[in-house]
Amino acid sequence: MGGMCQMAPGPGMMGSTCGADGQPCCEHHTCSFGTICEPYVTDRCVGFGTLMDLLDYDCGHDGEICCLPSLTCEGDLQCDFLFCSGECTEQGENCMTSDDCCDTDLCKPSPYSLRCCEAPGGDCSNSLDCCGFMLCEGGECACQAVGETCVDSDECCDDGDCVLGTCQPSTMCLDVAAPCTEHIDCCGALFCKEVFGSGMDKQCCVIAEGSCKTSQECCGGMLCEMGTCACQVEIEPCVDDNECCGDLICILGHCARQEGSCGRVGATCDMADAMSCCGMAQCRRVGGAMDSPFKCCGRNGDRCSAPDDCCGTQVCIDDHCQCKNSGESCVIGDCCGDSFCNSGTCT
């Protein structure tokens, strides 16, 4: 007997916590060899022997167990918790699709698990009969008012829109990721800002700590982490302060600390004080005149929103400071590459 080989343990067999006949299904609805997972009600493994006893070699007909391996039934019969049935799923009970539900009931979250439920105005005996987060009031599912929680727009009153899980007025506002020009164009708490890598100038997007599904819904360079747009830490890219974590501010397109009384872009500064400007901003003359004021400003390639954001005579093109080419007017520090400013001209 000592020479007999032993079968390697199947998934979840280690410690005998799952996978065997009668035990809970293992991860990804798997069971050990000789059993299958019944995932709908018990989430337990059922042995082939047990199934054959139940089957009596017949399956798929009304009252019989569903046919393996895909748990199917004949004709219009449904596989209702392992057994084939011609009966539909009643309102308020768990479902898989709307086809399972009696009459015109919908199969939607109510509020968290899928149930056969009613749209606004539908008959109900309790709030679980109503789709989403609607309440049963006076025997009818009451629609959700502006500001109330929702799953989709069908639940919102007055043809309102469900934006980021909240009913908003129907004002033809733009949803997340839509191109926009002003914040007022966007629905709810969305902002109209640049989203890095989107290929758009501006789009409706989610600011820091807002709910998201993908990073392309988050403003600036923020990433969608665990359903939330994560704020940017020091040095990471930004469009404005709303994207930076804590007390960090957005300076020339990067989150930075506001050390002491350092100045933002455009603030007057002291060239002799290295901490006069915040982040990567430099203290230089802004403009071409010798008596131009010293201000905190951006270098070539730094983000800008106006010409005065850039040092010297550099210009703001496509939201970035642009250095001067050979032959163009300049002050010291303006010229591109190996060029230098010689008597007011890049050489």
Protein model, in words:
The chain has 347 residues and is mostly beta strands. Among the domains are: 88-167, no CATH class; 183-256, no CATH class; 260-347, no CATH class. The chain has one helix spanning 48-55, and strands spanning 35-38, 44-47, 78-80, 83-85, 106-109, 114-117, 135-137, 140-142, 161-163, 166-168, 191-193, 203-205, 223-225, 228-230, 249-251, 254-256, 282-285, 294-297, 315-317, 320-322, 341-342, 345-346. The strands form eleven sheets. A two-stranded antiparallel sheet has the order 1-2. The chain has a two-stranded antiparallel sheet with strand order 3-4. It is elongated, with a radius of gyration of 32 Å.
Q: How would you sum up this structure in a few lines?
A:
This protein is 2% helix and 20% strand. The chain is mainly β and 347 residues long.
Average pLDDT = 83
Instruction: Enumerate how many helices there are, as a single number.
Output: 1
Radius of gyration equals 32 Å
* Uncertain parts: 1-15
Report the major sheet.
2 strands, antiparallel
* Number of beta-strand segments: 22
- Spatial strand order of the main sheet: 1-2
The percentage of residues in β strands lies in 15-25%
Structural class: mainly beta
Shape type: elongated
Order of helices and strands: EEHEEEEEEEEEEEEEEEEEEEE
Helix content: under 10%
Q: Quote the distance from N terminus to C terminus.
A: 93 Å
